[in-house]
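User: Hey, quick favor. My workstation is busy. Could you predict this chain's structure for me?
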Amino acid sequence: MRRKGRAAALQSLYAADVRGGLAESSLEWLVEEDQLPERAISLAQKLIQGVEARGQALDSIIQQYAPAWPVAQLAPVDRNILRIALLELLHSPDTPDKTAINEAVELAKVFGSDSSSKFVNGVLGSVIADREVAHLATVGSQI
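Assistant: No problem, here it is.
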């Protein structure tokens, strides 16, 4: 169910990114076309709203961890997969890190290019590694 929600969010954000419109209108179309379950719709809406609200901050993180690729020049699919995954990693404590990363890699395999899954996995792995190092540094300073 959650995978369908993430896929719907990705498709909606992709359409909005390419068209320059709102992702919610694309989601409405997908809901009618694909007969999505209510839980998937709810997750997709949550992800879309989160990405739209935190888009600049998410893009800054992407730029920091993929400096060779300006965010605007990334493939729209890869850019939006990373946005969704980062939103879940950083702002959804109920989603385990491994789940967010695995789901992002699976979306990249289905919707991205041949190299998308490796790129997405690499960026997200670097974010997690830095976050864990930062956490360990804070824990160490409390002793």
